[in-house]
Design goal:
Oligomer: single chain
Largest sheet: 7 strands, mixed
Number of helices: 16
Shape: globular
Structural class: alpha/beta
């Protein structure tokens, strides 16, 4: 794969998310040039994960020469916009928590530093597919993986037994399971297709081998309508059209009720699902089980990811080596990884954390499956590479709009049209922003 550089990302200098007024972007600590001569190096870290200040406190207690202050931020596009705006004013923090799909946008706006020289040898501590998302397949390293969200299959173990259903290992078996359940009880559905969270669809396409953004030199190619994604679209659109699954969005009171009462008996989700299920379906605690994501062909063993973030050092930091040292500790040190699990409730990206004491006990909601995290570790190691680009936010918004319409229409044709529109919208936006886009 060709090296992704700022030049290839930044064929245009436009801020993709649009600059907004920024107040208090950074602090005097961000530009502290005094160093060890007048006191400890002071680093500022913008993060949204809960309890990150408690994790940083562990570092501060043992590293008086490098002190880290965590400043709690909003997540998602709001934080990306704030980081870009701060970078334009050269008032950014030293470190930022950034979602993987946001990294190309931040790099294209010269907001992040290449820390490859400071993190040599760290690559081996992460699954290949996760590490690739911070390097874009090149030699530069723009962040260290922090947490990941490998996709899995969650199902009501008791209801599968009641209806004589077998846990599907392929997507064909998944479809047959959905149909079999409908025949046995028309009031129930295996699951739903939801368009209100783009990350799940992106992860499913990732598992199928999709490459939504690729590049060569200064030219970007958008492949959102590639064969892999079309396969995923046709599969889910077909199930919705025949009524084998529901078409209602997730995270609504109706969805919560469907899970809590057993109207829906499965959910394709990520490793963080126990927390969501505990809130959405408290009455079903201890009745669910987790299995690997169904595969497109028997014998395959790969998964996609839904969510996840990284720790990046900013281009504005005057203490990049110190910042990279903290980022490495935060995401590889056993004590730090255990604290991330305990204080922040995340699933660390580092492979060592997956079999550590912090994850030795199953989530309370899955107490009936004591090997939950052992299975999760096996699944996480099979995460496929992901191909992100400079305008993921535009694509994600278009997905919600277009696939939301398709889900309501309940036709395979509408799903296919939604994918075409998603491709066209993403290409048009890249061109509008000044990027060179392959025809």
């Amino acid at each position: 794969m060709p090296q992704l550089t700022r030049r290839s990302l930044a064929a245009a200098t436009a801020v993709l998310l649009g600059a907004t007024a920024l107040t208090a972007c950074g602090s005097s600590d961000s530009g502290d040039e005094a160093g060890a001569e007048s006191g400890p190096v002071k680093l500022t870290y913008w993060a949204w994960a809960p309890g990150m200040d408690k994790v940083a406190a562990l570092w501060n207690a043992k590293h008086p020469d490098i002190q880290v202050t965590v400043q709690k931020q909003a997540s998602g596009d709001d934080l990306v916009t704030k980081i870009i705006t701060a970078a334009k004013a050269h008032k950014g923090p030293d470190l930022v928590q950034a979602e993987y799909q946001a990294l190309p946008t931040l790099v294209s706006n010269d907001a992040l530093a290449d820390i490859a020289g400071e993190v040599k040898g760290v690559e081996e501590q992460f699954p290949r597919g996760i590490w690739q998302q911070t390097t874009f397949g090149g030699d530069a390293v723009y962040a260290l993986p922090q947490d990941s969200g490998p996709l899995m299959f969650f199902y009501r173990e008791d209801l599968f037994k009641q209806y004589g259903l077998t846990v599907p290992t392929t997507w064909d078996e998944f479809a047959e399971t959905a149909r079999a359940l409908k025949k046995k009880d028309p009031k129930k559905a295996l699951t739903t297709f939801s368009a209100n969270d783009s990350g799940l669809f992106a992860g499913l396409a990732q598992q199928a081998g999709a490459e939504w953004w690729t590049f060569e030199g200064d030219t970007w190619k958008v492949g959102i309508d590639d064969a892999a994604t079309k396969k995923v679209t046709d599969f889910w659109g077909g199930l919705v059209q025949e009524g084998a699954i529901d078409n209602q969005p997730m995270y609504t009171p109706a969805w919560n009720n469907a899970l809590n009462t057993g109207e829906q008996i499965a959910w394709v989700s990520a490793v963080w699902a126990p927390g969501t299920l505990g809130t959405a379906a408290p009455a079903t605690k201890g009745k669910w089980a987790m299995a690997p994501l169904p595969q497109w062909s028997k014998g395959e063993n790969t998964t996609g990811s839904w969510g996840g973030s990284s720790t990046a050092v900013t281009a504005d930091s005057k203490h990049k080596a110190a910042a990279a040292r903290f980022a490495t500790w935060l995401n590889t040190d056993p004590e730090a990884l255990a604290a991330l699990v305990k204080e922040s409730g995340i699933y660390p990206a580092a492979t060592a954390a997956h079999t550590s004491g912090a994850l030795s006990k199953a989530p309370d909601y899955f107490a009936n499956q004591p090997d939950f995290y052992r299975k999760a570790a096996e699944i996480a190691s099979t995460t496929a590479p992901a191909a992100w680009g400079p305008n993921v936010n535009v694509a994600y918004t278009a997905f919600k709009d277009e696939f939301g319409k398709a889900a309501k229409a309940r036709t395979k044709t509408a799903f296919d049209a939604a994918l075409t529109k998603l491709q066209e919208t993403t290409v048009a936006d890249l061109a509008k922003q000044g990027f060179e886009v392959a025809k």
